[in-house]
């Protein structure tokens, strides 16, 4: 264009044209500059994770060269190993990249764009959060029916947006009537009064923008065992036979110990005369029945079955009577009480017999006396005649 102007006009005319073109270009640049715009594309506020990189997206709209400056809490940032962005561009992205986030990087970030005419900016708040780590006091807990119980949970990291407990993958409701928990970094779960139905797998979970972490506790709720001997209360067995005393126990998997007693004396597993299931610390179903082999009269007495767990102890008893052998035939063993009754009966019988004999003697004596009196009267009458 300049060549055409120079060919068609003189020096004065060319100068005028150049001035007009210069004014046109300047006016157009100012008009375009006035439409400069900057937009933060990242969410507001935006979130980052400690130890990880973070990019805050910034879009610049314009058609002339602009200069980009980032500010943190009002302080101008410099490009370094920590911060980087494109400082000069003609439209496009001026994203700020932070290489490794620290908790102290939380704050207000401002993307400022300027050219020769205007300066525009937009801000967003960055919240740097720590990855949460949830731990529990123990992976296995035991409670007792009717008692209070605390399942301990600890959350490391900040901030904590929410805390939730669940049992067997079912969400619990924070309810002080049954159980409740805090929303702090120690959201322990508190039970007011345990029931067997509270047995289950409990999970403590905590959440923030960095994610969710959780830990689980297997809770077993134990009740005092119920012990019942199924045999009749008075059991009689012939000498030389074997005896089975059936002892039923509710939920044998919670039993810590099972013990049999004979006349309040401790029975030992090492005695081959007796046998019952030995727990040996293994919480498995078992039969608590007592077997007595080749019984003798000395086995007569009271047998007691006792089961114990962390909730307490329960017991039941039975009286066993052994019928001894005599001349190859079994006769019933007579107890001391029965002997006393027999002796007492015998004494009463003897007394009755003595009374009867005495009564007979007195009667006969009276009859003799009457007979003698009649004979004497008869003889006197005869003599008078």
From TrEMBL:
The chain crosses the membrane at residues 339-362. Residues 1-31 form the signal peptide. It holds the Pfam family I-set. Residues 51-127, 146-220, 225-321 form the Ig-like domain. Gene3D superfamilies: Immunoglobulins. InterPro entries: Ig-like_dom, Ig-like_dom_sf, Ig-like_fold, Ig_I-set, Ig_sub, Ig_sub2, Striated_Muscle_Regulatory. It comes from the Eukaryota. Keywords: Disulfide bond, Immunoglobulin domain, Membrane, Repeat, Signal, Transmembrane, Transmembrane helix. This is Ig-like domain-containing protein.
């Amino acid at each position: 264009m300049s060549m055409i102007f120079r060919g068609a006009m003189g020096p004065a005319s060319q100068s005028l044209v150049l001035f007009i073109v210069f004014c046109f270009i300047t006016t157009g640049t100012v008009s375009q500059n006035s439409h400069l715009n900057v937009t933060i594309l990242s969410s507001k506020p935006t979130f980052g994770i400690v130890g990880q990189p973070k990019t805050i997206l910034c879009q610049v709209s314009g058609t002339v060269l602009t200069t980009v400056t980032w500010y943190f809490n009002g302080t101008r940032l410099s490009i370094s190993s920590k911060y980087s962005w494109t400082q000069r561009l003609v439209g496009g992205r001026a994203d700020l990249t932070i290489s490794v986030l620290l908790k102290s990087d939380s704050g207000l970030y401002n993307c400022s764009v300027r050219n020769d005419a205007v300066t525009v900016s937009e801000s967003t708040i960055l919240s740097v959060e720590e990855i949460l780590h949830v731990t529990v006091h123990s992976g296995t807990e035991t409670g007792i029916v009717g008692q209070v119980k605390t399942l301990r949970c600890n959350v490391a990291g900040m901030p904590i947006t929410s805390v939730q407990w669940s049992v067997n993958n079912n969400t619990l409701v924070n309810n002080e009537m049954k159980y409740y928990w805090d929303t702090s970094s120690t959201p322990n779960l508190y039970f007011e009064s345990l029931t067997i139905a509270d047995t289950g797998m409990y999970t403590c979970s905590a959440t923030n923008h960095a994610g969710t972490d959780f830990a689980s506790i297997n809770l077993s709720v134990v009740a005092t065992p119920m012990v019942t001997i199924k045999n009749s209360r008075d059991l009689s067995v012939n000498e030389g036979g074997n005896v089975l005393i059936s002892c039923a126990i509710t939920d044998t998997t919670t039993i810590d110990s099972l013990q049999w007693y004979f006349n309040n004396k401790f029975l030992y597993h090492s005695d081959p005369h007796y046998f019952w299931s030995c727990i040996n610390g293994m919480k498995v179903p078992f039969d608590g029945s007592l077997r007595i082999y080749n019984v003798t009269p000395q086995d007569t007495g009271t047998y007691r079955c006792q089961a114990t767990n962390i909730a307490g102890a329960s017991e039941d008893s039975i009286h066993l009577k052994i019928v001894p052998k005599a001349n190859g035939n079994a006769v019933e063993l007579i107890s001391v009480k029965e002997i006393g009754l027999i002796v007492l009966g015998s004494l009463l019988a003897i007394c009755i017999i003595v009374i009867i004999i005495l009564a007979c003697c007195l009667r006969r004596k009276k009859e003799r006396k009457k007979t003698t009196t009649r004979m004497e009267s008869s003889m006197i009458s005869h003599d008078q005649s």
